[in-house]
C-alpha cells in the first residue's frame, strides 16, 4: 500500500474526518492536498480532533522527568524529544536515574510509546536529507554567509534556540546524537500549527508548566504549537483556497472559495516575506505580495552614536525594510536623521511635519543605498555561481532569492 494512503487510513482510525480531499504530489511543490471533486466554498474538508494532536500535554513523563533541572527547555524542544522517542528505541541511555525509572514504568504500561503506533505518520514526513539541502541551519557556514540579511538574522535566532534545547536534551540523554535531534527539531519547526492546549485555559489564565522544574510561567507565543496530522500536508499560499479554524474540540479546515476537482488546496502560514519562508521552511514563493528586503546593513554604517541613541529613544532603531510598494515609515524616519536638525527631525517623528519638502533629498539618499546594494548583489551572485556541484540545491535557492531581491530594488529605482 502507498505510504500516503496508509497514513490516511491511520489518521482516520484516530478520528480525523478527511472529506473529499487526498494527499497528492505536485510538480515543484512536493506533497500537498488535492480536491477529489468539485467543492463549494465554506465546506469543511478536514476535521482533526484534539485527541489526535501531539502537544506539550501529550509529552511523556519519560521526557518531563529526564528534563527536570534549573534550565527550561522550550515546548519546541520537548516535542522534538517526543518525536524521537515515538520514532525509535535507540534513545535508551538516560542520564538521570529518575528518568530511567520513568522510562521503565512507561514501557511496562505502554504509555503511548509503541514504535509502530506512529510509524505511518513518520513515514510520510520529510527526510533529513531534504532538510540538509533546503534548511539553512543545516548548511555549512560558508553558505550561511551568503543568505540575505533578513534570512541570516532569523537563522541566528534559530541557532540560539536550537543550541539551548540541544544542551538540555543531550545532558538528559547521553546517547542522543546531534543530527538525530536536529532532524526532530526541524520537523517541529516546519510542521507545527499554532495551538494553545485546552488545559491552559482551565484556570482562567494562559500558563505553561515549566517542563524542567514544575514552575509556572506565562505561555509564550513560540510555545503555542501542535503537531497536526494530515493538516501538515497543506502547502502555503498568499492567496489560499482554504482556512484553518480552531474550535473547542478540533482543528477544522474549510474552503474559502469554490474549488475544482483535482485542484490543489492551500492554506496561509501567515503574511511572511520570502526571506522568512526561506529561513523557517526552506522554500519561498515566485510571487509574494508580502515580500520585503531588510536595509539595515546599508543604513547602520551611515549613523553616528548620537543618532543611534535618538532613534532608540523614539523606538526607530533598526528593522528598515523595503517592499514592492514603498519603503517603510521607519526608513523614512532614519534617512531624515542623517541631514535634518534634531528639532525638525523630531517634528517629523511626532507627525507635526509631513516631510514633503524633504522628500527629494530623502529619496536621493535611498537611491544611493539601493544602487550600492545592487552592486553588492552582483558580487554575491558571482560567489554563489562559483560554488561546487555538491551544493546545487543551495546554489539554486540562494541565486534565485538574490535575483528576486535585485529585481525588487531595481523596480523601486525605476519609479524615480
UniProtKB/TrEMBL annotation:
GO terms for molecular function: protein-lysine N-methyltransferase activity. This is SET domain-containing protein 4. It comes from the Eukaryota. InterPro entries: SET_dom (IPR001214), SET_dom_sf (IPR046341), SETD3_SETD6_MTase (IPR050600). It comes from Erysiphe neolycopersici. Residues 14-270 form the SET domain. PROSITE patterns: SET.
